[in-house]
Amino acid sequence: MPFLYLPILIIAIVGGVLFASLSLYFRSRPLAGANIVLAVYLIEILFVHVPPIPLGVQIYPADIVFALLFGAVMFRYAIGMPKLRAFRWILIALFLLYFISVARGFALFGLKQTANEGRGWFYFLTGMAYFSSFSLSSSMRKKLMTRWFVASVLMIVIAMFRWVAVATGVSVGTDWAEGGTSIRVLNSSAAFFLAMAFFGSMFLNLSHRGPKWQRRAFYVLGPVILLLQHRTVWEVMIVGLLWLGLRDARFRKKAKGAIVGMALVGIMMGGFVFGYRSELISGTLRNSATNGDTFLWRVVGWYQLVFNNFADNDNPTLRKLDRTIGQPFGTGYERMVLGAHLPPFTVPHNYYVETYLRLGIVGLFLLILLYVSGMRRMKRMRPRFRNHAYPNPNFWHLVLLSQLCFFLTYGASYDQSILAGAALAGIRLKGYHLKTPKEPCLTGSSSGEQDTKESEIGQRLGEGQSDNSDPV
After folding, report:
1. C-alpha–C-alpha distance, residues 99 and 283, integer Å
2. Which of 2-16, 85-99, 380-394 has the lowest mean pLDDT?
3. Given CA atoms 306, 308, 309, 311 in this order, what sign does their dihedral have?
4. CA pair distance 394, 404, nearest whole angstrom
5. pLDDT at site 338
6. Quick one: how many helices (H) and strands (E) in the chain?
7. CA 361 to chain centre
8. CA distance 210 to 216
9. Tens digits of per-residue pLDDT, 176-230?
10. Sign of the C-alpha dihedral, residues 102, 108, 114, 118?
């Protein structure tokens, strides 16, 4: 009989060794981690519904990826532990609250129900912990942004193909569009992804940094985001553009030309893709801009979840505990909204409400503190951060601000953890001393001069390497 378990034992040992080896590989390679996260994200965008891997329980590709990254985080902290600054302690506290809620959920609802509701949180927290544990040099940030732009181009290609399918009435268009007539063929997470590429491109254009195709990508990204019709993303972009206009005089000077350029590209794109079906654009855009029913529906749902969700618990002590550290994962978000019953799996469409329900008032405070302290810390770092925070120090500040706005009506998706983690991490300035002669400002230089200057700076900073040194 013992021999019957030998194959299982061998598989477990081989699997454990393989898992540890891959985690060690990702431990010191943040760009490889970004590659695999973006690859899985693009697969989900392309196929919409990725089936789970049949291993007795439902395991998705993202589960495996973020389990490996979690192992890499453990190895990073166990081997040459990076200095635990305040934001890392906040992340550790959020993880602790998360695992407490998961453990309570597992005891009450079982593995499947708990995992289905809690896996998104695991992805986002793990990604934040992983990417924020690296102090990225300017050249590594440049490579990271290049990957982001490449992924954005692939998303635009996917969106164009789906728009053509919708415009021509191909039946497969109903798989991506509501009723086969909507042109909202990418979800809000993908639209927000493109918005971050839009701002990255705009900052590159203002600073005359990076390849030309990246500096001019916002001319295409802007119209694509508009046509995707996610109002929350529109509002995030408006906030970001206003914030940028207040902080950068160069943007105010170039704004009119950029708007005209994007308008021309949008007209040509709409005419090419939709042709004689122009009513699809005008009708759906008008509905997206004027219909306020969705927002009212969400606000009423938030009220029900925040004020009535704990009323069913007759135990006052347990009710206080739920409000403090959150209800167990698997509890669901069942509620009555405007006379309609919403099942437990209907998400709140507000990450702050979701955080309050699952991690309690303590978790909500820690989440906001993480972002606000990250933005304040970055503001204090700017004099020494200026020439090395590719594409621009304000961009990383805007990443955190944009996510705070996006969370008002949507939850966090794991792709956002890449840029948020990089923004929180700061930049590695190993070997760089503040008393050295001032470096030439890269802003306003020609592309060739900028690359030369950046290369000289990179040699002094030892760019392109990854270590456990803490950012300045």
Report:
1. 46
2. 380-394
3. positive
4. 15
5. 80
6. 18, 4
7. 23
8. 10
9. 765 555 788 899 999 999 999 999 999 999 888 889 999 999 999 999 999 888 8
10. negative
